[in-house]
Amino acid sequence: MGNSQASPASASSSRFAMASRAFSKQELDSLRALFTSLAAQSQTSGRAISRAVFLEYYGVRGALGERLFQLVAKESGGSDGVTFEDLIISKATYGRGTRDEVDEFIYQLCDITGDGVLTRSDLESVLASIHETVFAENKGVGEGSNDRTFEALLNSAVFSKDAEGVSEKAMSLSDFRNWCTLLPSLRKFLGNLLMPPDSGRPGFEIPLLHYPENISTDLLLLNKEYAWHIGGGFSQHEVQEWKLLYRSSLHGQSFNTFLGKVTNGDAQTVLIVKDTEGSVYGGYASQPWERHSDFYGDMKTFLFKLYPQASIFRPTGANKNLQWCAINFSSENIPNGIGFGGQPHHFGLFLSANFDQGHSFTCSTFTSPPLSKTNRFRPEVIECWGIQMRGAQDEKPELVKGTVLERFKEDRNMLKLVGLANSSD
């Protein structure tokens, strides 16, 4: 009588054969060489990669590293460690699988206890591992842990699933996907744990922050954890060095001073606001802050929250109302100040030209909620950071070329309307 079901060994062999097809011969040879090297260090007679060697090589600390080892070694049971078949099947699913397969793998990965229920305590363990893996070895002198930052990441999570035998609500796969959308740095980190550790893994890099030595890091709105979070909204090559260009308590709460500080060659900037209610939020401007009479910018621009919740809101394509920078306009239809998204007088985020008030409304440009607790707010601290290529902070910006009217196209267009542009050439 024949078997109606395949044996575990034959099923595993079938999965290995299918997984192998996800890689070229050269890739398989490279993975075989990696496995052979790590297994040789594992005292398993070359049969498997031991837990200690696996964790040391991939460098994922804490409970998340342990859970990653469990999932990768799951195919063979993990008694000896990670076999070559384990490695290929896991990397094929996790690195080359469909979107649903990858999301499911990461969802299981974050279930630290392995009980099939993703709870808040699981996510706390995940974030603790991220902190230990990414930040613990990258602290400068005098910089401590910032638990408040990771509390904000956790505060953006939604738990809507009723789980049997558990009193608290759990996170569904849909909840988890939405959380990862709001926190792209988290998704990048969790999606690249099995990449070679020397390859500049997405989600593992922290922007370098440059600021005057006489400023205490405790006073800055931006820290490394927040920069890691915001940087997740960029493409990988854009996460570089950030330089403090403007801080209201240092340079004065002046729009003209702000523009003078941020238009000296730094095209990409991160604007951060702390309001009098204690909320912290802002926007990434991919284009320079320049005087315009209408919206401008490109689809790289986004809004973000930092505290008490951390989230990123990317453009939806609903409109092109991305950046706003207006000064010395007398028309009520052109509010003077800087902003992101929405409509004039109803922005996703707006600071008045006096920098003494602002507003934030629900915004279809980014599908973002109000960033502040109330639609109208008063800024307490304003910071602006310039994004620079590594090693480029000492390079001198090119001199601005052209006449004033060539640099300010809006002024030129307005003069044309009254017939003065040509006479001023």
UniProtKB/TrEMBL annotation:
It comes from the Eukaryota. Coiled coil: none annotated. Residues 220-388 form the TLDc domain. InterPro entries: EF-hand-dom_pair (IPR011992), TLDc_dom (IPR006571). It holds the Pfam family TLD. PANTHER family: CALCIUM-BINDING EF-HAND FAMILY PROTEIN-RELATED, NUCLEOLAR PROTEIN 7/ESTROGEN RECEPTOR COACTIVATOR-RELATED. This is TLD domain-containing protein 1.
